[in-house]
Amino acid sequence: MAEQSNADSHAGAPGTWQPGAPGVLELPSGRLVRGRGLRKPLPAGPLPALTVQLLGGRVPLDGADWEVRWLRWPDFRLPGDRDEAREVLREVWERSAVERVEVGCGGGRGRTGTALACLAVLDGVPPAEAVAYVRARYDRHAVETPWQKRYVRRFTA
Q1: Which of 5, 71, 112, 136 is positioned for an S-S bond with 35, CB 3.0–4.6 A?
Q2: DSSP characters for 78-101?
Q3: What is the pTM of this model?
Q4: Helix 82-95 to helix 110-122 angle, to the nearest 10 degrees?
Q5: What is the largest CA-CA distance in the chain?
Q6: Cβ contacts of 94 within 8 Å, gap of 6 or more
Q7: Which residues lie closer than 8 Å to 151 by C-beta, 6 or more apart?
Q8: How far apart are CA 23 and CA 30, in angstroms?
Q9: pLDDT (tens digit per residue) in 99-115
């Protein structure tokens, strides 16, 4: 087994994100998930094990030698397939216990914030409080549209 670097040592599980790192949301259970805008450069530091692209179409991530999944989710809208979205978000939540996983859309706010709020629901945050939870801990502008807010309120663990 490879020796863990200082950059990887933190209160979470080995191989997860550093708490407080840019874009990293800590869920109530202590799981760490990174949200980011995919139009921006990859943040410095450890690479993810999984990136879930929340985009209207597939976009290759230059230099990505890790797992990349695409979830069809047009800008300012909702996931194209809600059952698939639930499965993918459940996988992100499960893997975040032991791996560096991230979700991202173009700007890193609307779709990303919505997905992070759904992950908070999976982690035990009441659906009616999940948007506020993510806005307080990730980005105050996360979850941009009324229908995204409604989607989170109706999302169940």
Answers
A1: 112
A2: --S-HHHHHHHHHHHHHHTTTS-E
A3: 0.90
A4: 70
A5: 47
A6: none
A7: 78, 114, 118
A8: 15
A9: 999 999 999 999 999 99
